[in-house]
């Protein structure tokens, strides 16, 4: 049985730590949680997980990151792995970037920073349903 993975991508460690605490409190050990601090690191993890036969169910990505913005990352991921549910997490994305990601990457949802724990959990649950 392949492990079921949720991947979080954000260039701020404190954001990743906060996400980790909130999702573990709610989902416990139901899923494997992976964390990347850049689009490049996310791709490395995706390749590694894919080669291990893991099933990446959902990706939550920040929008504003160095080198590769979240909309670019999610669109690239969608081109190779259209079945992965994609969520953007942002304090700064413009509507154009969000709409482009909705259209080109089948964006499930966009969470705005600061998010509420309830909003995060509901978004993940609706994506995983």
From TrEMBL:
One of this protein's Pfam families, by short name? Answer: Response_reg
Sorted keywords for this record are: Phosphoprotein
Q: Which InterPro entries match?
A: Bact_response_regulator, CheY-like_superfamily, Sig_transdc_resp-reg_receiver
Question: A biological process (GO) annotation for this entry?
Answer: phosphorelay signal transduction system
Q: Domain named Response regulatory: which ranges?
A: 5-128
Residues recorded as bearing 4-aspartylphosphate in the entry: 62
Which SUPFAM superfamilies does this chain map to? CheY-like
Highest rank taxon of the organism: Bacteria
Q: Does the keyword Phosphoprotein apply?
A: yes
PANTHER family noted in UniProt: STRESS RESPONSE REGULATOR PROTEIN 1 (PTHR44591), TWO-COMPONENT RESPONSE REGULATOR-RELATED (PTHR44591:SF19)
This one is known as Two-component response regulator
Taxonomic lineage = Bacteria, Candidatus Moduliflexota, Candidatus Moduliflexia, Candidatus Moduliflexales, Candidatus Moduliflexaceae
């Amino acid at each position: 049985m392949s492990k079921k993975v949720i991947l979080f991508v954000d260039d701020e460690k404190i954001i990743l730590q906060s996400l980790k605490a909130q999702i573990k409190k709610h989902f416990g050990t139901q899923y494997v949680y992976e964390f990347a601090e850049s689009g490049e690191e996310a791709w490395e993890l995706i390749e590694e997980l894919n080669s291990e036969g893991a099933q990446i169910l959902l990706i939550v990505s920040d929008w504003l990151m160095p080198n590769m913005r979240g909309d670019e990352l999610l669109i690239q991921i969608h081109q190779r792995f259209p079945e992965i549910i994609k969520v953007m997490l942002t304090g700064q994305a413009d509507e154009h970037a969000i709409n482009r990601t909705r259209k080109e990457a089948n964006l499930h949802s966009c969470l705005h920073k600061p998010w509420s724990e309830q909003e995060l959990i509901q978004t993940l649950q609706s994506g995983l349903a």
